[in-house]
Write a structure and sequence with these properties.
The structure holds 2 protein chains of 2 kinds. Among the domains of chain A are: about 305-510, no CATH class; about 690-749, no CATH class. Chain A is elongated, with a radius of gyration of 32 Å. Chain A is mainly alpha-helical. In chain A, helix 4 runs antiparallel to helix 18, helix 12 packs parallel to helix 17 and helix 29 packs across helix 30. In chain A, strand 1 and strand 2 (about 70-75) form a beta hairpin. Chain A has helices at about 5-25, 30-45, 50, 75-100, 105-125, 130-150, 155-185, 200-215, 225-230, 235-240, 245-260, 265-285, 290-310, 315-345, 365-375, 385-395, 400-425, 440-455, 460-470, 485-500, 505-510, 510-515, 520-540, 545-565, 580-600, 605-625, 625-650, 660-685, 695-705, 710-720, 720-749, and strands at about 55-65, 70-75. In chain A, strands 1-2 form a two-stranded antiparallel ribbon. Chain B is mostly helical. A two-stranded antiparallel ribbon of chain B has the order 1-2. In chain B, strand 1 (about 95-100) and strand 2 form a beta hairpin. The radius of gyration of chain B is 18 Å and the shape is elongated. The chains are: A mainly alpha, B mainly alpha. Chains A and B meet through helix 27, helix 30 and helix 31 of A and helix 2, helix 4 and helix 5 of B.
Chain lengths: ~750, ~140
């Protein structure tokens, strides 16, 4: 069975590749067919439930054998829980995306992006080696950037996408540092065999991992990207901001907790940052009136609760955090879809723009919103309630101040969830009579019903998934008996209802809450970075071409001179062959061309004179045994002259001569650059570098490469990878130039 | 440049250059030449055609857009590279077949044809994009 592990990631990628043509051709059937891929994956992962707890599935394959790098995949209970979440929610979201975006241009790319994201995320949770995990981690960052920025005509979408990218990519760098450190310190091949660390470098590793988790899972103060990412199409939020992307940080913490849990930094950081995030997210959610913003902020709060729990010093804490993650994914994906459906029906998703006296939502939407909302509000017997009760029990069992803090945070966040659930499910008004299609309302209804069924069934689910992760019975169940957790649940319920009744007062304070919770540090930092980049660019890339070239050439001269001065005198100076009469004549020809270019008054004369220099160089190559180089140089020279003439023919003649000082400066720069090249040529020709690889090339060209032209054999066979890269660079440069020049001609016409 | 001499010369020179470019491409593996040089020569032929008959005629002579040339070239080069997985062990592994009377033919030749097409597309793309507006034959001043 283990050989099936990589297949699902590949299948999701293949589905993503097929998605654009398929969804364009079959707007309704296409997404449903594509959803079969994550659906089948979810079914397969579900079927592994019974035996993975006993015996994890492992699979590995050589990746870069020359460097000893293998891909290791491992399906243990933790990976299985997240795989179920990713695929099980991915399938309905894909269907919803097809229905919700039908007829819009972004429909096909959205579906493709969602499937690609599912592939990356699945790779991330299945990866058992640090390198593959990191690659998948970065892939989720980049795909999320593309998905958030799908409607790139809107500046809000571009800003939000860039903000999400910069924050999560910064976390990715921290993760890279941490994973490299982990590899260096432990030398372990796979994450599952990494021993527990406690001190020394482990502090820095833990810091890097925590930074990565906090940025990806939108923890204070990095939470600012998530509410902004609501600029994404609703299906993207329903997936990335409920079950997938934002859970990656939680997964990372759960995955590495056995390794880094004993580092002194680990638990306090998770407790404090998670707790602060839960409170900030809850406050922001209560102040918001846009349905998607409410949901995004409750996501921030819920992620804070999960990390807080992961920081509790209790054997069952990880299992409880995982329970919250599952419950949250189930209800939040459904609620995002409900918000999208509400927007379709009511014409807006902002509660402040809805007429309180307007018509109610269609009953099926109200029921779906109610079911998913009750799970978010942690009302019995929903799955959300079971997870919340377990979380409270574990938090209280942690003991000491952490228990009080944890219980307080969970209760207050719970109150915010109740408030948000009421706002999303009860407030929307103004139904326009638009009908909802099955593809729009079916997926959230399905998820809401699963949340209802999973509540009473949570004992089984907990035993299969949570208990193996915790290594003990977490005791996920709907009924924990009468006790402090139940009391706190009821308190949260009461607080949430009372708060919602007084929502006018809460929302009146919204501007102050928003300012306090998001002081705009990221935008200020961004503007400083842009200003700094501008200053650097003005310093080293002045607009005047002369100054710009001076900087480039003098930098090159400086570096080469430094390197030449540091070079140890070689053991053998071969000495350059003496130039013969023809060489001298060619050199004079080149000098003449250069002088002509310098003294020319007209641009075309200067270009022509430069062309003569190039042709002289080509003749040099020809005389010294490099016919291929000579031909290339000659042709490039001719074409360059033509292109320069085309580009410059509209411009006036060169202006009046420069002043003496300017001319002396230019002459100095030119002579320095020329002298540098001359010195390099002399050193390269005069130093015996040994036989090196050129002998091998010339002896192997015919027997190995079936060619007598060594240069060409190197270009298209021995070093063809370089050529491939150069061809790509050439094509990309040409495409860029074509795009810029096309804009120029549009502006002219 | 609207001169009879240039136009008459270009009518014969441009096809000659194309044949020359193909010959350079073909013989490149054993003698000076190759896809890059051949592509530059063919690109020069397009430029010559444009100078003599104007950019519209050059675009027509090119058959496809410069972008299409580049895309096809990239596809050929990448396809030849990927064939390495089929016939060899890894990317860009060369495979050769000895064709009687012709000599050895291999995936590097396909690769070189791809380089040729990309260079033709890039050169003609630059030239035609830089061509001044309204510079059809006859409208040219000097």
């Amino acid at each position: 069975m283990a050989s099936w592990l990589p297949i699902w990631t590949v299948a999701l990628l293949a589905a993503a590749a097929l998605a654009v043509p398929l969804v364009r051709a079959l707007p309704r059937l296409g997404p449903c067919l594509l959803a079969l891929v994550p659906g089948a994956a979810a079914a397969w992962f579900g079927a592994q439930l019974p035996h993975v707890a006993v015996e994890p599935l492992a699979w590995s394959h050589p990746w870069v054998p020359a460097l000893g790098v293998d891909v290791h995949l491992l399906l243990d209970p933790l990976a299985l829980a997240f795989a179920l979440l990713i695929c099980g929610i991915g399938a309905p979201v894909v269907v919803f995306a097809g229905g919700y975006l039908r007829g819009k241009a972004v429909a096909a790319p959205t579906v493709a992006g969602l499937l690609a994201f599912a592939a990356a995320m699945l790779g991330l949770v299945l990866a058992d080696d640090a390198l593959f995990m990191f690659v998948c981690w970065e892939a989720t960052t980049i795909i999320s950037y593309l998905l958030v920025g799908l409607e790139y005509e809107k500046s809000s979408a571009r800003t939000a996408a860039r903000r999400a990218l910069l924050i999560t990519a910064a976390g990715g760098l921290a993760l890279l540092g941490a994973l490299v450190g982990l590899e260096v310190v432990t030398g372990a091949d796979t994450l599952s065999t990494t021993p527990a660390l406690a001190d020394g470098a482990a502090v820095f590793i833990a810091l890097g991992v925590l930074l990565a988790a906090f940025t990806k899972s939108a923890q204070v103060p990095f939470h600012v990207w998530l509410p902004g990412a609501m600029a994404a199409p609703t299906p993207v939020s329903a997936y990335l901001h409920s079950a997938a992307m934002v859970k990656a940080g939680v997964y990372l913490v759960l995955r590495l907790a056995p390794t880094l849990g004993e580092v002194w930094l680990w638990r306090p950081a998770l407790l404090i940052v998670g707790g602060a995030t839960a409170l900030v997210g809850g406050l922001l959610a209560m102040a918001a009136t846009d349905l998607k913003r409410i949901l995004a902020c409750t996501t921030v709060a819920a992620l804070g609760c999960m990390l807080l729990l992961a920081g509790v010093d209790h054997p069952l804490a990880l299992g409880a955090a995982l329970g919250l993650a599952l419950a949250h994914g189930l209800y939040k994906a459904g609620l995002f879809m409900v918000a999208g459906a509400t927007e379709k029906v009511a014409g807006s998703r902002d509660l402040a723009q809805m007429d309180p006296a307007g018509a109610r939502m269609p009953w099926i939407l109200a029921v779906t919103a109610g079911l998913a909302g009750l799970s978010m509000a942690a009302a019995p017997p929903f799955f959300g309630f079971a997870a919340k009760e377990t979380a409270l029990t574990v938090a209280l069992a942690g003991g000491g101040g952490a228990a009080v803090f944890g219980a307080l945070v969970l209760t207050l966040a719970g109150a915010a969830f109740v408030y948000a659930a009421l706002a999303v499910a009860r407030e929307p008004r103004g139904a326009s009579g638009k009908r909802l299609t099955v593809m729009v309302i079916g997926p959230p209804l399905l998820l809401a019903l699963v949340g209802l069924v999973a509540g009473p069934g949570s004992g089984l689910l907990g035993a299969a998934l949570l208990d193996p992760v915790a290594g003990a019975a977490v005791g996920l169940a709907v009924w924990h008996g009468v006790g402090v957790p139940l009391g706190l649940s009821l308190l949260a319920l009461a607080l949430g209802v009372v708060g919602w009744r007084r929502r006018a007062a809460v929302r009146a304070a919204a501007p102050r809450i928003d300012r306090a919770a998001d002081p705009g540090w990221h935008d200020r930092l961004w503007s400083h970075v842009v200003a700094l980049a501008g200053a650097v660019a003005r310093a080293v890339q002045p607009v005047a071409l002369r100054a710009n070239l001076s900087v480039i050439l003098l930098a090159a001269v400086g570096m080469v001179t430094f390197a030449l001065l540091r070079m140890r005198p070689p053991s053998a100076w071969v000495g350059s062959p003496m130039p013969d009469a023809i060489d001298v004549m060619l050199a004079l020809f080149l000098l003449g061309g250069a002088l002509g270019a310098v003294r020319a008054r007209g641009r075309l004369t200067a270009i022509g004179a430069l062309g003569a220099v190039g042709i002289g160089a080509a003749l040099f190559y020809l005389r010294h045994g490099a016919p291929d180089l000579a031909m290339t140089q000659l042709l490039v020279e001719v074409l360059t002259v033509v292109l320069l003439m085309l580009a410059f023919r509209g411009l006036p003649d060169l202006g009046p001569r420069r002043t003496g000082a300017e001319r002396r400066w230019s002459a100095g720069v030119a002579l320095a650059a020329g002298g540098m090249i001359g010195a390099l040529v002399y050193v390269a020709g005069a130093v015996d570098l040994g036989p090196g690889i050129s002998t091998w090339f010339s002896t192997q060209a015919l027997p190995e490469g079936y060619g007598r032209n060594v240069v060409n054999v190197i270009l298209v066979d021995f070093r063809a990878l370089d050529t491939l890269g150069e061809v790509v660079v050439l094509a990309v440069a040409a495409l860029g130039a074509l795009a810029l020049l096309a804009r120029r001609s549009e502006a002219q016409s | 440049m609207n001169t009879v001499i240039l136009r008459t010369a270009a009518r014969y020179l441009a096809p000659t250059l194309i044949i020359l470019s193909l010959w350079l491409l073909w013989r490149g593996h054993n003698a000076p030449g190759g896809g890059f040089i051949g592509g530059l020569v063919a690109g020069s032929a397009v430029v010559l055609h444009a100078i003599a008959f104007g950019p519209v005629a050059a675009r027509r002579a090119l058959r496809g857009s410069p972008r299409a040339w580049m895309a096809i070239g990239m596809a050929l080069a990448l396809g030849a590279a990927l064939l390495g997985f089929v016939f060899g062990e890894t990317l860009l592994d060369a495979a050769w077949v000895d064709v009687p009377g012709v000599g050895p033919l291999g995936t590097p030749l396909i690769f070189d044809v791809g380089v040729f097409a990309v260079v033709v597309g890039a050169v003609s793309g630059f030239t035609l994009a830089l061509w001044p507006e309204g510079a059809e034959p006859g409208a040219e001043e000097a």
